[in-house]
Amino acid sequence: MTSSIFPLHLCLAAVLLTSCxxxxxxxxxxxxxxxxxxxxxxxxFTPPPRRIEDVxxxxxxxxxxxxxxxxxxxATAAATAGNGASPEERARxxxxxxxxxxxxxxxRQMRDDLAAARAExxxxxxxxxxxxxxxxxxxxx
Length: 141
Known about the structure:
The chain has helices at 2-19, 30-41, 52-63, 67-78, 87-103, 107-119, 125-140. The chain is mainly alpha-helical.
């Protein structure tokens, strides 16, 4: 009877001894624990927003965009693109519209406008680079 209980006691002792280990971390003194507690007490707790309107208000406050700036972005994104005599002018109008659409979160319109801008034959390498970089960013989203 005692021989069948001995392995159980041995396993229990091993579990208890290993659970008392601190993982190689040095023990914390009482003064250090008090300092750490004082650090946390000085921080205030901000409860999470309760309603979706609170979340929307927080997001609007975080964007730092005025209603006039948002209206300009919407107007630019809604403007007709592709008007221009040269391929650069057409590509630039598509690019401006794509950037505005991206700022408004209209990723599909942004990708479509960037594809139309890429389709133009461009000599301006800086504009071509901006279009390609924006395309890569839009496709990563």
